[in-house]
């Protein structure tokens, strides 16, 4: 009996340690410093630093890469997408990054940018008639006519991205 | 003493207003909902192009705080990004004179989406796009025949004519300014450097973008007129046009979309039938949505394609149902049914009685090498062209839009004359085995 209790206790400790280690790893590999350590991410990283989301705002707030490029609707989706992207990006960096059409890939941006990320910080429902310009511009999103923020905010998060991609990739 | 003081103050008052009037800089100060950059544009351009700013300040855009910069600003990496305006030179702001449907779609997404599924979308791509159906014949007509084959004039007829309605493929100079080969042009199917297609300001002219303007027949009439599709003439010939011309100036053209209904007007304008929300129908910017036939092709066919680049874009059966539901806001089902039966009979007569026999003769002459290579210098081909492109369209479009003079005198009557002339030439060529001089 004592042995079983001891084993369960050990299991919980090991489990906790593993969970913490995983959480720590997930946390440390979500920002610009880690992501831009791959050569192919230099261009997007420079474009990010120039943009509002990269700190060029009055408060100096910075969104992290994963805030936009991983789904934020559930922890499961988040971890699943992170694992998939992690594997894909490592292989990509080794085998395909040099020959990849980075500018051409911009048109697929909705596949790797998640609206749930935008919505985590931007609450469109708080946008009222008292800011008529903003309300008018976003009503088509609120009623579902426009399904992605990226339809209008084309290169949001990465200012002058084409220029940086040409220079760096 | 007090009198003297009053006189001095009075004189100073007079003089100061004179100074104010003398000021060469008349700027408009606007503080309502605009960013500092936005204000700068308005203030400077109110002195430089007061007409533009006067339009804008009377628009819905100014009411909601949308100003110059909101539509004219582009990302630095946009193909149209420039700093030709001294107000932004050297700053972080890049602007362009070209405001494309992509820009309008940032706030008017549904309208741009509907437009992109309509026949208007193909206006430029169809008549002279390298992969368009008429590219060879249209290039020859514009450059060789209308431009008289002179290199320096090869685009002249197109620049002042075709592209002003159909639109142009806009090309840019080294400073990212649009070149004269495509700009200015108020063409509905303009193809922009950012890849988008269309031109919202054709009907909602800049910079007032007035919904009332787009609802009046004049908005359509600047292109839909003339010998080949006299739609405004047909409208004026119709009872709808009669009522509009008699009392349209007293109607309400400013109701909200979907809420503009009979009562605001006593007869429909072009927009009422083809676009506006009326009864159960929703407002649409797809002007092909309520149509049954294609009425400009040599042979009229039912619309049956979801592709805006197809001449048969739309769904003919659905389109007719929708148009009938428009009519029934003011007319009984019997009136509506009989009217369209009359129109459909006329369209069938054109197809069967005129186009098919004319085409059969043309094909036989072609097989026997009895058509000239230059269609514009061959009496048979000239008449054939007028038969479908001018008279045939007038007959069909006159019939569906209740323009009896166009359906008959400018249509059917001229068509039977055309066909007799074609038969004469055809028989003569078959008899002699050669093309007459």
Explain the layout of strands and helices.
The complex is a heterodimer of chains A (169) and B (437).
Chain A: H1 2-28, H2 32-35, H3 42-50, H4 65-69, H5 75-95, H6 109-112, H7 115-121, H8 132-142, H9 161-168
Chain B: H1 2-22, H2 36-48, H3 50-57, H4 60-63, H5 68-72, E1 73-74, E2 94-95, H6 101-104, H7 109-115, H8 123-128, H9 135-146, H10 156-166, H11 211-215, H12 217-221, H13 231-237, H14 239-247, H15 270-274, E3 304-305, E4 314-315, H16 316-327, H17 333-367, H18 379-400, H19 404-432
Antiparallel strand pairs in B: 1-2, 3-4
Describe this structure in words.
The complex is a heterodimer of chains A (169) and B (437). Helices cover 57% and strands 0% of the residues of chain A. Chain A has helices at 2-28, 32-35, 42-50, 65-69, 75-95, 109-112, 115-121, 132-142, 161-168. Chain A folds into 2 domains: 1-30; 35-168, Orthogonal Bundle (Multiheme cytochrome fold), CATH 1.10.3820. Chain B is built from 19 helices and 4 strands. In chain B, the strands form 2 sheets. Chain B has a two-stranded antiparallel ribbon with strand order 1-2. Chain B has 437 residues and is mainly alpha-helical. In chain B, helix 13 crosses helix 14 (239-247), helix 17 (333-367) runs parallel beside helix 19 and helix 18 (379-400) runs antiparallel to helix 19. The N and C termini of chain B lie far apart (102 Å). Chain B has helices at 2-22, 36-48, 50-57, 60-63, 68-72, 101-104, 109-115, 123-128, 135-146, 156-166, 211-215, 217-221, 231-237, 239-247, 270-274, 316-327, 333-367, 379-400, 404-432, and strands spanning 73-74, 94-95, 304-305, 314-315. The model of chain B is unreliable at 18-23 (pLDDT under 50). Among the domains of chain B are: 111-202, no CATH class; 228-331, Hydroxylamine Oxidoreductase, Chain A, domain 2 (Up-down Bundle), CATH 1.20.850.10; 335-432. In chain B, a hairpin with an 8-residue loop joins strand 3 and strand 4. The chains are: A mainly alpha (169), B mainly alpha (437). At the A-B interface, helix 8 and helix 9 of A face helix 7 of B.
């Amino acid at each position: 009996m004592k042995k079983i209790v001891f084993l369960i206790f050990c299991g919980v400790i090991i489990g906790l340690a593993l969970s913490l280690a995983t959480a720590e790893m997930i946390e440390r590999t979500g920002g610009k410093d880690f992501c831009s350590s791959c050569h192919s991410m230099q261009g997007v990283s420079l474009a990010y630093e120039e943009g509002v989301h990269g700190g060029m705002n009055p408060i100096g707030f910075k969104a992290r890469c994963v805030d936009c490029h991983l789904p934020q609707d559930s922890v499961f989706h988040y971890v699943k997408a992170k694992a998939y992207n992690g594997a894909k990006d490592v292989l990509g960096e080794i085998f395909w990054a040099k020959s990849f059409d980075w500018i051409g890939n911009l048109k697929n941006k909705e596949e790797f940018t998640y609206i749930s990320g935008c919505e985590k910080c931007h609450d469109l429902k708080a946008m009222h008639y008292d800011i008529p310009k903003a309300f008018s511009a976003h009503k088509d999103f609120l009623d579902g006519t426009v399904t992605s923020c990226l339809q209008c905010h084309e290169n949001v998060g990465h200012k002058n991205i084409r220029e940086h991609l040409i220079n760096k990739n | 003493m007090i009198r003297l003081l009053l006189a001095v103050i009075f004189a100073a008052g007079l003089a100061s207003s004179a100074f104010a009037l003398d000021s060469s800089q008349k700027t408009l100060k606007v503080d309502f909902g605009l960013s500092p950059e936005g204000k700068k544009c308005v203030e400077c351009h109110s002195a430089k192009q007061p007409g533009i700013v006067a339009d804008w300040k009377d628009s819905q855009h100014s009411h909601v705080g949308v100003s110059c910069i909101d539509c004219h600003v582009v990302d630095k990496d946009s193909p149209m990004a420039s700093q030709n305006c001294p107000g932004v030179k050297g700053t972080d702001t890049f602007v362009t004179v070209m405001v494309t449907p992509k820009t309008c779609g940032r706030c008017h997404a549904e309208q741009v989406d509907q437009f992109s599924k309509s026949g208007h979308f193909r206006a430029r791509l169809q008549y002279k796009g390298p992969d368009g159906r008429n590219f060879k014949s249209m290039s020859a007509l514009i450059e060789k025949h209308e431009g008289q084959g002179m290199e320096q004039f090869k685009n002249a007829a197109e620049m002042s004519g075709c592209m002003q309605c159909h639109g142009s493929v806009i090309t840019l100079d080294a400073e990212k300014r649009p070149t004269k080969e495509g700009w200015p042009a108020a063409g509905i199917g303009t193809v922009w450097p950012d890849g988008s297609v269309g031109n919202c300001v054709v009907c909602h002219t800049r910079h007032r973008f007035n919904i009332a303007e787009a609802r009046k027949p004049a908005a359509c009439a600047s292109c839909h007129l003339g010998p080949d599709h006299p739609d405004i003439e047909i409208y004026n010939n119709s009872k709808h046009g009669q009522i509009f011309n008699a009392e349209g100036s007293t109607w309400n053209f400013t109701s909200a979309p979907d809420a503009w209904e009979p009562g605001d007007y006593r007869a429909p304008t072009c927009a009422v039938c083809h676009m506006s929300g009326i009864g159960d129908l929703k407002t649409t910017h797809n002007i092909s949505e309520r149509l049954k036939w294609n009425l400009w092709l040599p042979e009229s066919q039912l619309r049956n394609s979801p592709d805006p680049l197809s001449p048969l874009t739309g769904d003919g059966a659905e389109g007719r149902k929708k148009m009938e539901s428009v009519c029934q806001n003011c007319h009984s089902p019997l009136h509506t049914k009989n009217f369209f039966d009359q129109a459909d009979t006329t369209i069938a007569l054109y197809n069967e009685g005129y186009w098919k026999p004319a085409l059969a003769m043309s094909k036989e002459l072609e097989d026997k090498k009895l058509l000239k290579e230059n269609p514009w210098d061959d009496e048979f081909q000239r008449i054939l062209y007028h038969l479908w492109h001018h008279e045939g369209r007038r007959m069909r479009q006159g019939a569906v839009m209740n323009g009896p003079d166009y359906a008959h005198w400018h249509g059917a009557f001229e068509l039977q004359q055309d066909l007799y002339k074609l038969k004469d030439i055809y028989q003569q060529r078959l008899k002699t085995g050669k093309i007459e001089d």
